[in-house]
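hey
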């Protein structure tokens, strides 16, 4: 069940402070939605060999960058004006960290779009698209769940996102091994297969960033840093 009891943000005497925190959360989720779409479109552009869509993604990346700067600036203003403590400080600091991860997911989507444009001109690679679709869906789901965990302050959902990261790593390694075997058997397609391998690497990195966001959600809700800890320790923190 979602940890709704932990949603204690927005109960200040100052109505304006409540609104500032709510707006910060809203802007973060708005940026998250845009980045989710960038990622989904990048994978679609590659699989559909759609150079036009890939070009649109690269152009939209400027909006993601601008939103990161705006959220960072607003977070800094909240700290300067309100001097938040305890849970409020955890919220603002976590948003600053998580917005950086969102921006990097946007960068990975732009990178995928770049390879999609190249392959649309050079011709599709003979292998790897099934793996791209599968891992793309997997990490896209992780990112969505991480953002949902933030919106609902749901540490249990955040923990599930963390657990998915290992599965993505295993799927990535299996996909790379398959492509390497194919390239050794048919050297004519090395260049295009290498592009697909770089796309798979970008998707694996998206999973890492989703995991980072999930870790920060647990920090917000529980007040304990679960980065660089074992999964057993993270489970202990969430179960408290």
């Amino acid at each position: 069940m979602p940890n709704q009891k932990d949603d204690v943000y927005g109960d200040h005497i100052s109505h304006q402070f409540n609104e500032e925190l709510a707006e910060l959360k809203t802007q973060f989720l708005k940026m998250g939605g845009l980045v989710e779409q960038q990622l989904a479109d990048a994978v679609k552009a590659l699989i559909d060999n759609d150079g036009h869509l890939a070009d649109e993604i690269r152009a939209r990346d400027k909006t993601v960058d601008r939103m990161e700067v705006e959220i960072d600036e607003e977070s800094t203003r909240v700290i300067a004006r309100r001097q938040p403590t305890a849970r409020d400080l955890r919220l603002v600091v976590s948003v600053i960290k998580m917005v950086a991860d969102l921006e990097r997911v946007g960068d990975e989507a732009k990178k995928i779009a770049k390879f999609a444009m190249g392959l649309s001109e050079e011709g599709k690679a003979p292998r790897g698209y099934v793996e791209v679709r599968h891992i793309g869906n997997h990490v896209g789901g992780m990112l969505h769940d991480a953002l949902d965990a933030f919106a609902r302050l749901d540490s249990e959902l955040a923990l599930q996102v963390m657990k998915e990261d290992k599965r993505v790593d295993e799927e990535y390694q299996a996909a790379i091994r398959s492509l390497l075997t194919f390239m050794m058997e048919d050297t004519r397609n090395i260049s295009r297969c290498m592009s697909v391998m770089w796309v798979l690497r970008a998707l694996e990195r998206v999973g890492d960033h989703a995991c980072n966001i999930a870790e920060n959600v647990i920090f917000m809700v529980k007040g304990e840093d679960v980065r660089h800890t074992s999964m057993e320790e993270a489970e202990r923190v969430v179960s408290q």
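The domain at 10-239 is CATH 1.20.58.220 (Methane Monooxygenase Hydroxylase; Chain G, domain 1). Residues 86-122 form the longest helix (37 residues).
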